[in-house]
Amino acid sequence: LAPWIRKVKFLYERLNTDRVKWTEQDELDFQKLKEVLMTAPVLTIPDVSKEFQLFVDVSGQTAQGVLTQEWASKRKPIGFLSKILDPVSRGWPTCLQAIVAVALLVEEARKITFGASL
Asked: What does each C-alpha distance from 81 to 23, 68, 72 come to in angstroms?
């Protein structure tokens, strides 16, 4: 998931300013992003009667995760989640950033799981 987040992060940074300054590198990154989107894995519809699994990672300033469920003895992605860590958390050691990442993404996952167990 980390490479995926890096591919999208430039868009967030460009769109989070008053004026958009689009560079040649941004255009190349955007073309790469479009290619990735065309080959992205198909998400499965969530089944709230089944248990969910949330896999979390923290990379740089971003918490990222994959929400999955088991279907036909295989884990299938239900959703890809990401949140940018707040400035205070960014200064913490990685082990503490991981705890913050889990807390943030569990909250995000609740929007999909409707309170079902993780």
From this structure: 27, 11, 23
